[in-house]
Input
Amino acid sequence: MWAIAFACTVSFMGIGLVDPILPAISRDLNATASQTMLLFTSYLFITGIAMFFTGWLSSRIGTKKTLLAGLLLIVVFSALAGASASVNQIIDFRAGWGLGNALFISTALAAIVGAASGGSKQAIVLYEAALGVGLAVGPLVGGVLGSFSWRAPFFGTATLMLLGLLAILLVYPRETTPAPSAKQDFWAGLKSLRYAALRRLALIAFFYNFSFFILLAYSPYPLEEAAAARGLNFGAHELGYVFFGWGFALALASVLIAPKLTQRFSLKSILLCMFTLLLLAMAVCALFFDALSTLIIAVILAGGFQGVLNTVLTESVMEATDLPRSVASSSYSGVRFIGGAIAPLVAGPLAAATFAGAPYWLAVAALLLSLILTLISNLGHPRVVMSGKA
Output
């Protein structure tokens, strides 16, 4: 369980790792902001699509082999990204990285839940803690290594994921070939969206993740511009500290605040409150995109609200239906990652065509949709199973 959690942490580091080095990649490879943000799009889009089919693969070759295959792909493609000569090559290699991430992440959650002795709720908190720590440390590592070269964070990730691969290879128990009865249908991930509860949560997460990755992928550019307007040099190192603060707030909220809230309040009330607070934080970013201190504070506070949302939504999905957890997790993650993939695709061109605050207003609109969907949905306490087909 702890070996998988360590590998999860490093895997999630890969999401935020490129954040501080996006402007540096733009400068060194003569790429526009819109082009470099596609590093998120290719990664998240392939991750999202592949998520729907990872359960089919793991039910045939087993959890351990699926985890190892995913980690191996991440090691190879992150190293290739570091050796790239153009931004288009990095975009392509990030897509292969995303495939490995899908194989690993979708299987890892179910594996942690299965390995934990304290029940699914404690395992989900551990998973979200790994996510939060990874997202916090990723930008910090990216900033420190990126101050030497934008290539260094990619090679650093490859090295750490290789350690994660070796850890799972050594400590994960040997598996027998899955029984024929355990094998999943190839389309099981897509078919699972027929369940109203799962589909409803996935759609809420789709718009939420759209806003999530506008904040994560787009914010380095207005932060750098706001700093430049004040005569400050805001490079990879400084961006790394900002997004470390964001990730730290996310991790803290995921592990400490979210479990306490779910013990006292209903799922619906938590989601409505957090979506409203996150919407307000994004509105502040939209209004004060040129005010460096205000923008930094809003980004970090947003991380706290996102941490609660991540944990509550994940726990709800795992208990929403009587589907196998690997299927439910893969389907939900597939939809939400596709939402995240679209965000960087539109944020750059929108900012270039209008003004720097426009992508944040788009994030506000997406969060408003999540808020409305939550408001009209019949969601109860996260511990209540919400099954049933449409």
In short: The CA atoms of residues 249 and 304 lie 5 Å apart. Residues 33-61 form the longest helix (29 residues). Residues 381-390 have pLDDT under 50 and may be disordered. The two ends are 35 Å apart (CA to CA).
